[in-house]
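WP5 quarterly update. Target: Aldo/keto reductase. Source organism: Flagellimonas spongiicola. Length: 278 aa.
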Amino acid sequence: MKKITDLQGTFELHNGVQMPYFGLGVYLSKDGSEVSNAVKVALEHGYRHVDTASIYNNEKGVGQGIRESQIPREAVFVVSKVWNSDQGYDSTLKAFDASLERLEMDYLDLYLIHWPKGDVSKDTWKALERLYKEKRVRAIGVSNFLKQQLEDLLPTVEIVPMVNQMEFHPYLVQQDLVDYCQQHKIQYEAWSPMMQGNIFDLDILKELASKYQKTVAQIVLRWDLQKGVVTIPKSSKKERIIANANLFDFELNHKDMARLDALDRGQRFGPDPDNFDF
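Structure tokens (predicted):
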């Protein structure tokens, strides 16, 4: 397992691209000054990875925040996603162009299929492969794809997805899926690492926070990283953005990692990729 050393550390994707293992999520951050300020704060404090999506309606502000930060574009790992209503070959290519236009960029570092959509996602994936071959995106992947959905997709692809971004936290580990992704060299990534705020109610997390002299959020984010999972906690508050990244002066021991692993109960706080209606 690669050592978790600092905020700008990376995991290597199967095509050799270095993906920072810690980033800023901007889901629910309002377009305009709220999201652009959050991005600027994050970049000024050492973050080099920002994760957005067309459905978040804040790509414009994300692009603005990156430009105003004075950090060179090539030093920031920028991620966006194609929404369900844009899936399909031609419509995905158009959606990608629209995302780039809003971000005011000429390439993305990672582009994801946001949710699985059966056979339509196979056409969407072909569009992503084209964008990748044209070097308009440095890596391509999926989000919210369970094992059976990957098993359906993979036999039809030329390029295996580099990333699978999933709901992931101590109540939802999905070890079978994690193992399957590792076997296919698909980097696992967490969304909702804080269980939509429910993590703060768990006594074991409070106990570990006290033991390590860290916050509950820092304990769970460190657990993600030590499990080899990229994580992108979302916040628009300066103090929290800074605190969330304060993870590199401690390490959870094996016993405490195992205690957190043992919390797994297959419980989702977000939509079920097998049963959603959007």
